[in-house]
C-alpha cells in the first residue's frame, strides 16, 4: 500500500569492510538486506552487489554471496557433514573441494569429532558458528549476516566476531545487522536506520 519500508537509502560498502546495519525492529533492515540479496525486487532505485544489478541479475547475486538468516539456517535433521555437502552442492562446488573445505572448517571449529552428529543435537553457539562457516563455504566475496548472534552467550558472541574478523582479513566483505551496540563497535562503519531511512552513517567513533 502506501507504506514505504525502505525510503530512498544510499550507501556503498568497500571490499573487505565489516559494515554494520543497525536499527530497531521495523526500521527496514531486513527488507533492505533482502533486496541486496536478490530475494525481493525494489519498486524503484538502483543497486549493484558484487558487480551485479539487483533489478536484472538477482540470480547472479545469489551465486556470489553468502547469507546467514536470523533464524538458524542449517537442516537440523542432517548431520554436520551432510549439511556442508548439501550447501557446497547448491553453490556448484566440486566434491573434492567440498571435502577439503569441510575438513578445514571442522578443524578450525574444533568440531572434527562431530562430522556425523545431527545438527539438532548441537549447542546453539556451535550451530551459529557452523552456520557462518557454511555461509562462506564457497568463498564468496560478500556475506550477509542477519542478526547472527541473537540468543548466544557473550563468550560465543566474541568467538563469532573473531571469525568475522578473520573472514574480513582474507578480503571477504561482511554486511551484518545487529541489535547490540557493543557489536556495532566491532564494525569498520555503521549505518543506523530509522523508519526506512538512513539517519547516520560513519565509523563507530
Question: How is this structure best described in words?
Answer:
With 205 residues, the chain is an alpha/beta fold. The protein is 35% helix and 18% strand. The chain has 7 helices and 8 strands, in the order E-H-E-E-H-E-H-H-H-E-H-E-H-E-E. It has helices at 29-36, 58-63, 80-90, 95-108, 124-135, 154-169, 181-184, and strands at residues 18-22, 48-49, 52-53, 65-68, 142-146, 173-178, 189-194, 197-202. Helix 3 (80-90) packs across helix 4 and helix 5 (124-135) runs parallel beside helix 6. The protein is globular and about 50 Å long.
What labels describe this entry?
7 helices; two-stranded antiparallel ribbon; 205 residues; 8 strands; single chain; six-stranded mixed sheet; alpha/beta
Number of strands: 8
Distance, first to last CA: 38 Å
For the biggest sheet, the summary is: 6 strands, mixed
N-to-C SSE string, H for helix and E for strand? EHEEHEHHHEHEHEE
Structural class: alpha/beta
Q: Share of helix among residues? A: 25-40%
* Low-pLDDT runs: none
Instruction: Specify the overall morphology.
Output: globular
Average pLDDT rating: 91
Using the CA coordinates, give the radius of gyration.
17 Å
Strand order of the largest sheet: 4-5-6-1-7-8
Beta-strand fraction estimate:
15-25%
Instruction: Please report the number of helical segments.
Output: 7
Amino acid at each position: 500500500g502506501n507504506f514505504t519500508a525502505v525510503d530512498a537509502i544510499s550507501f556503498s560498502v568497500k571490499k573487505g569492510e565489516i559494515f554494520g546495519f543497525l536499527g530497531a525492529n521495523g526500521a527496514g533492515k531486513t527488507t533492505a538486506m533482502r533486496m541486496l540479496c536478490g530475494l525481493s525486487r525494489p519498486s524503484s532505485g538502483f543497486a549493484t552487489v558484487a558487480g551485479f544489478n539487483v533489478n536484472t541479475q538477482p540470480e547472479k547475486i545469489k551465486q556470489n554471496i553468502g547469507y546467514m538468516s536470523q533464524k538458524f539456517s542449517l537442516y537440523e535433521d542432517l548431520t554436520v557433514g551432510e549439511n556442508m555437502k548439501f550447501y557446497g552442492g547448491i553453490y556448484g562446488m566440486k566434491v573434492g573441494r567440498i571435502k577439503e573445505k569441510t575438513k578445514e572448517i571442522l578443524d578450525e571449529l574444533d568440531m572434527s569429532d562431530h562430522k556425523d552428529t545431527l545438527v539438532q543435537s548441537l549447542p546453539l553457539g556451535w550451530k551459529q558458528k557452523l552456520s557462518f562457516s557454511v555461509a562462506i563455504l564457497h568463498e564468496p566475496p560478500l556475506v550477509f549476516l542477519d542478526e547472527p548472534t541473537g540468543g548466544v552467550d557473550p563468550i560465543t558472541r566474541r568467538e563469532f566476531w573473531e571469525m568475522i574478523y578473520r573472514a574480513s582479513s582474507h578480503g571477504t566483505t561482511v554486511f551484518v545487522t545487529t541489535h547490540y551496540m557493543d557489536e556495532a563497535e566491532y564494525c569498520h562503519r555503521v549505518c543506523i536506520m530509522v523508519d526506512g531511512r538512513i539517519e547516520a552513517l560513519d565509523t563507530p567513533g
